[in-house]
Specification:
By secondary structure, the protein is mostly helical. 78% of the residues lie in helices and 0% in strands. It contains 4 helices and no strands.
């Protein structure tokens, strides 16, 4: 049995790729947060100091825009920091194993149904075994025998 502390090269590579993807997601989240702060400051300056859109936009339009952007940032943060913990690589592997076992159960049930509806007679099984034995004998003969008797004279 393989110890949990013993990893193959492929396991190390897979762990490395998974960690790299997680770091990439966190990096994007931090970049999103920095853009949010810079954008919020810019919108507040445009609205409160420069009075941009005073006539055409609703009063305190920047607050609505910042609130909407904050909601998007919050969803992004929840996805990266919270959902990835629950739905990480181990969760994915467990789901794959569940699906594989369901598929195997389905295959076995279909095989039983086929075997029940179309039974193989013992005579055909014996013929198949005989054919397999002949093939093995032919392989052995090819390895050991003199092929000169098959040459044209």
């Amino acid at each position: 049995m393989k110890s949990k502390l013993t990893f193959s090269k492929s396991d190390h590579r897979e762990q490395y790729e998974y960690a790299r993807a997680r770091i990439r997601k966190r990096k994007r989240l931090m970049r999103h947060f920095i853009f949010f702060i810079a954008g919020a400051i810019l919108f507040l300056i445009m609205d409160l100091v420069l009075k941009f859109g005073k006539d055409s936009l609703p009063q305190n339009w920047s607050a609505y825009l910042i609130l909407f952007w904050f909601f998007i940032l919050l969803v992004h943060a929840l996805n990266v920091l919270l959902l990835n913990r629950f739905m990480d690589k181990e969760w994915e592997d467990r789901q794959i194993e569940k699906l594989k076992s369901k598929q195997m159960e389905r295959i076995l049930s279909l095989q039983k149904k086929v075997d029940k509806e179309y039974p193989i007679s013992t005579e055909s099984l014996q013929n198949e075994a005989t054919i397999q034995e002949i093939k093995k004998d032919m392989e052995n003969l090819d390895d050991e025998s003199d092929h000169s008797k098959y040459q044209p004279k």
